[in-house]
Design goal:
This protein folds into three domains: 9-111, Alpha-Beta Plaits; 122-244, 3-Layer(aba) Sandwich (Oxidized Rhodanese, domain 1); 275-355, no CATH class. The protein has twelve helices and 14 strands. The protein has helices at residues 9-17, 37-50, 75-83, 136-145, 156-159, 175-185, 202-213, 225-236, 291-296, 303-310, 313-322, 331-342; strands at residues 23-31, 54-60, 63-71, 94-95, 107-111, 132-134, 149-152, 162-164, 193-197, 218-222, 242-246, 255-256, 275-277, 286-288. Bound molecules: zinc ion (2 copies).
């Protein structure tokens, strides 16, 4: 059997829309030594493609990180496949809260050198000496007290649309940048209680070990991350201390936790928390755009990009080369975001992609 997908994504997306059954969106991860990640990857691909599972899964020597959608009628059989491998023993599975089952349209399992591209030297500190795991209710209460240091361990484009009340949300583009910023920012507070959180908990595993190595004495982390928190507070009937939307890396790009919108359109400044990728394929930056601006800029981040998008093929190349900005550099997002903030969400005349240098 084939161990990868060869069908065109347009056809796959259409197929997904026409499915007459429901899917459950789940996620799980674990740090666990896998001796032959490629072989393990192939076994999983076989098991899960037979059950018509979709998703994005990373397998590394250090473990697995999976976001998946599983047909409801195959869910028990899916759990059955998990029982075959010791790595999944008692693994907590998180269910998405806003779930239309359309989050993935194919199955992708990739072997990576590391689970999270964190840029950290794992030999420099003990990665297994992690912080104290707090469940949702415990974390909820400690955040509510307002007495402790709450730190968002995600990138700024994630915390921009949603975060815990009173949390420190560093303006970092990458995890590596984030963790050194946090270590510096909190240098004078090594004895305070630190409460870390991220999307699904996986980044905090590394971050907490790193902070402990750097002398922080009371490091705690939200077990299962925001995904699990959102699910638990619903069950416990607690009022969310997380405001806004939880950014997720699938087709949805985010699910609302408490229904509040806390971010702004990067082009007009209006309240909005919808992430889009610029429709100019050679740009593709991730940014926040309201429906009106989407119309005005034809789904693009700037006039420049909409000009390029709508130009005939042969002119596109010339246009691209005449722009002295680098396309496809995700750092542009950071700059554009800062620019929008600095000008206090000024009009689109003040804000345009051309002012941005990579
Ligand atoms: Zn707008
Ligand atoms: Zn663009």
């Amino acid at each position: 059997m084939r161990l990868y997908n060869i069908i065109d994504s347009k056809i796959l997306k259409e197929r997904l829309l026409n499915e007459d059954f429901t899917r459950k969106t789940v996620s799980f991860y674990r740090y666990f030594i896998i001796n032959n990640p490629q072989h393990f990857r192939d076994l999983l691909y076989q098991d899960w493609s037979e059950l018509n599972c979709f998703g994005r899964i990373y397998v590394a020597r250090e473990g697995i990180n999976a976001q998946m959608s599983v047909p409801e009628h195959n869910f028990n059989m899916f759990l059955e496949t998990l029982r075959k491998y010791p790595i999944f023993d008692q693994i907590p599975i998180k269910f998405a809260i806003e779930d239309d089952g359309k989050s993935f349209y194919k199955l992708t399992i990739k072997v990576r050198p590391k689970l999270v591209a964190d840029g950290l030297d794992d030999n420099a500190f003990d990665v297994t000496n992690v912080g104290n795991h707090l469940n949702a209710a415990e974390f909820h209460e400690l955040v509510e007290s307002g007495e402790h240091v709450v730190v968002d361990m995600r990138n700024h484009y994630e915390s921009e649309i949603g975060h815990f009340k009173g949390a420190i949300c560093p303006e970092a583009d990458t995890f590596r940048e984030e963790i050194s910023m946090v270590t510096d920012m909190l240098a004078g507070q090594k004895d305070r209680k630190i409460l870390l959180y991220c999307t699904g908990g996986i980044r905090c595993e590394k971050a907490s070990a790193y902070l402990k190595h750097h002398g922080f004495s009371d490091v705690n982390q939200l077990h299962g991350g925001i995904l699990e928190y959102a699910r638990q507070i619903k069950q416990l009937n607690l009022e969310s201390n997380f405001v806004g939307k939880n950014f997720v890396f699938d087709e949805r790009l985010g699910e609302s936790v408490n229904g509040e919108i806390i971010a702004h359109c990067h082009q007009c400044g209006k309240l909005c928390d919808t992430h889009v990728n610029c429709a100019n394929d050679s740009c593709h930056i991730l940014f926040i755009q309201c429906p009106e601006c989407a119309k005005k800029y034809d789904g693009c981040c700037s006039d420049t990009c909409s000009t390029i998008k709508n130009a005939p093929e042969e002119e596109k190349v010339i246009l691209k080369n005449s722009q002295n900005r680098k396309f496809g550099n995700s750092r542009l997002y950071c700059k554009s975001f800062l620019l929008a903030k600095k000008t206090n969400f000024a009009t689109s005349e003040n804000y345009s992609g051309e002012n941005v240098t990579a």
